[in-house]
Amino acid sequence: MLLERARIAIFGASGYTGAELLRLLADHPRAEIRALTAERQAGKSIGEVFPHLATYALPDLVKIADVDLSAIDVVFCCLPHATTQEIIKDLPRGPKVVDLSADFRLRDPALYERYYGHAHHALEAQADAVYGLSEHYRQAIEQTWLVANPGCYTTASELPLIPLLKSNAINPDAIIIDAKSGVSGAGRDAKVGSLFTEVSEGIHPYGVATHRHGPEIEQCLTDFAGRSIEVIFTPHLVPMSRGILATIYVRNAPNFDAEAIHARLAEAYADEAFVNVMPFKSLPATRHVRGSNLCLIGVHPSRVAGQTIIVSAIDNLVKGAAGQAIQNMNIQNGFAEHLGLTQQPLFP
Amino acid sequence: MLLERARIAIFGASGYTGAELLRLLADHPRAEIRALTAERQAGKSIGEVFPHLATYALPDLVKIADVDLSAIDVVFCCLPHATTQEIIKDLPRGPKVVDLSADFRLRDPALYERYYGHAHHALEAQADAVYGLSEHYRQAIEQTWLVANPGCYTTASELPLIPLLKSNAINPDAIIIDAKSGVSGAGRDAKVGSLFTEVSEGIHPYGVATHRHGPEIEQCLTDFAGRSIEVIFTPHLVPMSRGILATIYVRNAPNFDAEAIHARLAEAYADEAFVNVMPFKSLPATRHVRGSNLCLIGVHPSRVAGQTIIVSAIDNLVKGAAGQAIQNMNIQNGFAEHLGLTQQPLFP
Amino acid sequence: MLLERARIAIFGASGYTGAELLRLLADHPRAEIRALTAERQAGKSIGEVFPHLATYALPDLVKIADVDLSAIDVVFCCLPHATTQEIIKDLPRGPKVVDLSADFRLRDPALYERYYGHAHHALEAQADAVYGLSEHYRQAIEQTWLVANPGCYTTASELPLIPLLKSNAINPDAIIIDAKSGVSGAGRDAKVGSLFTEVSEGIHPYGVATHRHGPEIEQCLTDFAGRSIEVIFTPHLVPMSRGILATIYVRNAPNFDAEAIHARLAEAYADEAFVNVMPFKSLPATRHVRGSNLCLIGVHPSRVAGQTIIVSAIDNLVKGAAGQAIQNMNIQNGFAEHLGLTQQPLFP
Amino acid sequence: MLLERARIAIFGASGYTGAELLRLLADHPRAEIRALTAERQAGKSIGEVFPHLATYALPDLVKIADVDLSAIDVVFCCLPHATTQEIIKDLPRGPKVVDLSADFRLRDPALYERYYGHAHHALEAQADAVYGLSEHYRQAIEQTWLVANPGCYTTASELPLIPLLKSNAINPDAIIIDAKSGVSGAGRDAKVGSLFTEVSEGIHPYGVATHRHGPEIEQCLTDFAGRSIEVIFTPHLVPMSRGILATIYVRNAPNFDAEAIHARLAEAYADEAFVNVMPFKSLPATRHVRGSNLCLIGVHPSRVAGQTIIVSAIDNLVKGAAGQAIQNMNIQNGFAEHLGLTQQPLFP
């Protein structure tokens, strides 16, 4: 039985992904926002927390314990990892859940523990979770109550690589992902490293060889490569609020050149609304996807024979978070996949 | 007879206001884009000129001479001043026109000539033009074929001041408008002064005492004050792409204090969808209106008795250009005024 | 007896003003840095706290209690207000002190208490403190052990206004200061309001009518006006790391016009190395003083008769903090006033 | 015979590298600026072209033809390529020349023609030119009248790679340089692609596989590797005015790991004032070298066995242009190499 309108709760609505869900859902014809939570800000209006949403009629913030889940069809969960699993494991079955944290992305509890520093406490829910890279896990998403929405770096990295690994178009051993992110990826917490004065007018790498999105990318690519995949993954912080650019260096498989790689990608995404493979040798800019659910992918031959450069761009808060979450909610509930996601990019 | 759908042409679609019209009209249920012009880029697709719109199905750019105006209901004219009047004076009567240039804003040809450096050549059309500050000229806009869409600084300055002058709440002699603009106000032309390296990480005033929006503000305020108004108006360039903030210093009229001034504004705009008077002593930020058609207005008492500080914020490309143009098109054509303009602000 | 070289301690060296003192003192031929303190980071090298200074040979951070003050000639005190007065009141007499906090700027303890929220606990030291606006309190600075270094907004506001009030060139009742600041003025503390994502691509006013620099400006201007002065002072936050721009609106005194006001300012600062009055009608940009101890001042006639617009620009961390502190140290110690302060601005 | 003071002319002083030479030379005790040229702006003061230098006593701009070269010891040539070779080939022998254009960097005229689109017309001068990567061509620089100052990307790429290729610490076949630049690298010309609105809040690759710094890097690395080197080199444009970050992916040579690679680099630059190898696993940020002649280099092991990530950061206008030019001038003239180059970085 399909819902006419999904009654929605957002847990952790006072962060940037919460605000972005609200922005996008305002245009969703089959979504109705029923509850917004923020434990420390319960009682406030959304306008007190996000002045840019002050003119938008929305329920006030409450605590999770005060949400009547029997009147909720979909929960978007935007809580920090660790907290998330405690909340989700105790949820009554009924609402469908799209979780934007990292808690249910890694299937291997030992890997989770190594990267997140503590044991996983919701292994039962973990067993039901489906990785929410919409274009590639669509059928499983339709069936599950719990979607583990992918990370931002991972979405930008996986979308261009999956079709190439599936079709053996590239050497799976030599993948390098040099990724660049805007600052909203660090969330709305007060941290010295995210201050304007520490970020503006400069660029630097961080989390090299240790970033938590590394194993997530590898798990997903391994799903499609038919063998274990390791990647070199280097994140950088760029003075912009939104956007992820992934510059990916691959070695062509025998009998493949950059043009054939481009053709393979173009074919793979020919019918997808949100993944756009640009003309051969055109390359994307993050500012051209700002505010939209698009992933742009460009392919360029390298100066060095036998190698190809692939560049993808997304808005980390949309296709890298809230937008893909809505896309997954649409899939789970049998809605047209583009509902709430038709806004054009905002440029300049 | 009302149109079911307006068939639209955009003249000068390769600039920022053209792109912004396209972004907003994509969500307008009763607009159909039929022709886009750009004289020097005729033949190109919109994606070649604006990569962020590459996935949006739109007609290719053509020359104005190649547009079949008999199949057009509305022309948005985004051409430079001077060129604009040459085009508009030769248009066949039929399509309604919203002109985003400055050519039809000043009613006095001598004033136009003084500020724009050449005589006005379309005085007949000028006589029909209605100034398009939607909230205050609505009835005349309904009747005219030609709307002179207001400037960005002027919209931000006029909206808070009109109700106060109408109700004699402030001293009309001592108005100071200290205004701050983002860089998109300068358009997409290659100019040294708009380079990233010349704008980033700094602020400076420009056009002091000479800016063309000065006489436009005065003409409009004079309409409502019942006497001639002069203003001090100082524009500044801020390292941001979008946004206008106007910090306005007024002397209270006898028997008025800041709170009464606030009440007068709140009352004036109580029923308006796009003008929001914030709670007393709250003040707006430009980033909280980005991408939306909102004008936020805040009122604060000054440290000095008898004076009040009023701050307004708009997105110069939306309420200050393309958004208000669509609002005016809606009024002209009998559409609900909010169509195409319901997007929430994009933050961060 | 003049010092050959001043042995210097910086208290609170882990903030931005501390870093800026280090940058400038590296070029000071008569300064020798002997001790750097930071209570919570004691034991670290400066490179751990400020990677940009990692190649600069400096002592490690220690606690104030571990500094041998008998071997120190000058203390730059960069501590938060309240803490500052507790430290300074217990200092042994001997070292000269330039205090960059607000604790000794306001002479009236009641005013201090009103604006800073607690009583002043070092009134004896307060009685010795000299306000360190170098160009105007030079003789008193030479004589004192304790300089209260001015605030950033206040320096930018006072330098253009003092000569005009002294010479009765302007109406002292109607001064409006619309000021714009970079983000480093908020310091290096982790605050949501200073995050890149909250500051970038926008502008907003803050502290309207309540900012602590308001009474400081009034106290200083009152010193020179020969009567009590009140000002309207409106700070705004701009997406840039450094810089203050003050746009000042004044009413001309009878017999003065903008040109005469310009002449008065040009004459007042003709012999000053760090205050530069630009040609009449030229106006400054903050980016043109970045990294330098310059204050640029421009004067422009208004559109409205009898009024003048004066614009000043400084780097808030240099002339608005560390640079002026070094200038004051030079004055106190009989050094040439420009030592350590000869760097040209960094542009772009 | 050593010069007491070098009498200096700057050809093409109205661009960013010209301004940067002026800023740095202001602190150079043995440099005296005698002539500044700018063909189209001849007759103007430097303050008209660069307001930030208005208070600095300098000669007005003249045409090259009006410079008395017999009274000049050193010419810094900041002209566009192609123009440069025409000027330099006709210079009288006498002044030493540091050329900041690309015209004398590539030794192979065929390669020059392929990348720059026209034949080289000054092959005689080319034969005398020495590539000015100061740390590695010092002895030849001492002997030549003509230094071809390296490009910005190339300096950042070559400094970390040369010692590793010389000592066979890395596989020379698999070098990937993912480089990120600030906007000042594009110069001060009015171009749409350098507008604030086109650059702010985003990142994109450009010149992939075709950028002119590709062959320059290969020529230099080939000099030290003892065999022909090919590199993959991908430039990106970052919303910042200054800075280059090069993230370099290398495969370790047999018997080398990341730590051994780090040790090799640390040893190679132990005695260099301007190249600083950070502690193992520390990585640089461009904002930490802003305004200084420093190159910071960091080394980190990869997640994938046998591979290492090396990151270098410079200020493109200093070590990547004007600073290295002064360093080369110092070497050519027997001055201490650090003269004029001792400024600490400007942060924030």
From TrEMBL, chains A, B, C, D:
Chief subcellular location: cytoplasm
InterPro entries linked to this entry: AGPR, AGPR_AS, AGPR_dimerisation_dom, AGPR_type-1, NAD(P)-bd_dom_sf, Semialdehyde_DH_NAD-bd
Entry's Gene Ontology BP terms: L-arginine biosynthetic process
Localization of this protein: Cytoplasm
UniProtKB keywords: Amino-acid biosynthesis, Arginine biosynthesis, Cytoplasm, NADP, Oxidoreductase
GO cellular component, one term: cytoplasm
Presence of the UniProt keyword Oxidoreductase in the record: yes
Reaction(s) catalysed (UniProt annotation): N-acetyl-L-glutamate 5-semialdehyde + phosphate + NADP(+) = N-acetyl-L-glutamyl 5-phosphate + NADPH + H(+)
Pathway entry: Amino-acid biosynthesis; L-arginine biosynthesis; N(2)-acetyl-L-ornithine from L-glutamate: step 3/4
GO MF terms held by the record: N-acetyl-gamma-glutamyl-phosphate reductase activity; NAD binding; NADP+ binding
Active site: C152
EC number: 1.2.1.38
Protein family (similarity comment): Belongs to the NAGSA dehydrogenase family. Type 1 subfamily.
Role played: Catalyzes the NADPH-dependent reduction of N-acetyl-5-glutamyl phosphate to yield N-acetyl-L-glutamate 5-semialdehyde.
Entry protein name: N-acetyl-gamma-glutamyl-phosphate reductase
Natural source organism: Arboricoccus pini
Source lineage: Bacteria, Pseudomonadati, Pseudomonadota, Alphaproteobacteria, Geminicoccales
Gene name linked to the record: argC
